[in-house]
Amino acid sequence: MKPRVWSIGVVFVFGLALAGCGREQKWTTESEEAVRWVSTGVQQWQRFYYTDALQSLEKAVAADSQFAIAYGRMALVHLYMMNMPDARSLIAKAVRLSATATPREQQLIRLWSYRINDERAKEAALADSLIVRYPDETELYLFRGQCYEFDRNFEAAVKMYTEGVERDTGFALGIMSLGYAHSALGDQDKAVAYMQRYIHMAPQEPDPPASYADILIRAGRYDEALDQYRKALVVKPDYWYAVREIGTVYLIKGRLRDAERQFEEATRLLPANPQSEASLLRLRGVVDVFRGANEDAVALLRAARAIDSSYVIGSSSLTTALARLQRFDEAWEVVDSMQAELERRNLRESQAMQGYHLTRARLLTEQNRLDEAEAECRAAIEFSIPFTRGAVYTQLARIERHRRAWEPALDAVENALAVNPNLPDALLTLALVYREKGDNQMAMEIGKRLFDLWRDADPDFRSLAELREGLGRRAGK
Hints:
Layout: H1 11-19, H2 32-46, H3 50-63, H4 68-79, H5 84-97, H6 103-116, H7 120-133, H8 138-150, H9 154-167, H10 172-184, H11 188-201, H12 207-218, H13 222-235, H14 240-252, H15 256-268, H16 274-291, H17 294-307, H18 315-324, H19 328-344, H20 352-366, H21 370-382, H22 389-403, H23 406-416, H24 424-437, H25 440-453, H26 462-471
Helix pairs in contact: 2-3, 2-4, 3-4, 4-5, 4-6, 5-6, 6-7, 7-8, 8-9, 8-10, 9-10, 10-11, 10-12, 11-12, 12-13, 12-14, 13-14, 14-15, 15-16, 16-17, 17-18, 18-19, 18-20, 19-20, 20-21, 20-22, 21-22, 22-23, 22-24, 23-24, 24-25, 24-26
């Protein structure tokens, strides 16, 4: 899931949320300047121009330091930049100031507060009640759909986004959300169709082609995705999300130095804060894991955790690096900290648990505790959705490869490739299974696909070295 909430199709939502209609016309500020800057900031945010949005919202609170909605919107920008300390501080201030705001403003701020503070059941219940009261406000359908996604109920999310689009056919973010939801369900063709519709609705904005590129990556169409991210940068050369995700494509292709440069540039384009520093350290650490530079990766990832320990997903790379160094006690300490953070944030029933169980499975596999590792994979599947399931089935295939159980390994890889037929880790495992099984022709055929994908990879790209070692030193030369 991208760190996004609103987009260009819901610019009008802000006016409704503040001014209301009929009985609720009063603003909670007498400063026209504050209103103007908040309106500008929200429109920038809806385009994911986070730096610009924060600057505008800061001007709004400079014009009226008691404007509750301005602080609430600032909190949301920080939330989707993964800056939780500032998000929580600002939403707390918005809640305090909203005591004298209109009922509608109070309820919206309370809804945002539930989101920021991980009070998910309250968020869903309030969103339901607000949809009944304000059925024409499409922002509410977006929030409720995201609640369903959090609960892994993507069918219900699709219905909610569809209802929002039916209320307003110009609700571009609803179209975008439908694209992501169908992708999560494994229907990449339908996802592509929605993203193409999103592009048609907003041809002069950078996010539609970038969102379309996200779907193409999920379908394994990496070169096409790269083209779409570049199209986004033609529209807005400093669009941070496209810059960063080009780095993600380079990482998949093994272009590690190029990936690092993209990640550094994307970080520079966002507001500087401790969380952005931690994010860059994390990304550099991940790149070092791809290099097999495990000592360097551990140092970077530990430095990132020292700044921001709440980002549990990043712990998977740290455990991988520690396991490769045979530092298993330290790796299990990291896993225990992941569990504690998941519990603290009420995430034990969320999709985040897939990553937790998969991390455990990988660590157990490194320790050759294969039955336990398989059980963790089965648990991960329970929390997965179709497009994320490939990583779990790939790990099951690795476990079966360790057992030299070739047919179960091949079955697992087939499941891994069901949504993304070009999933690199699954193809690498498949090539190695065929080689060890004695089917050299199939091994080389799969290997050729990977050599083509990694034709521009850096020499220290670990997966490419593993493929060459598995297929023979001269393979791919």
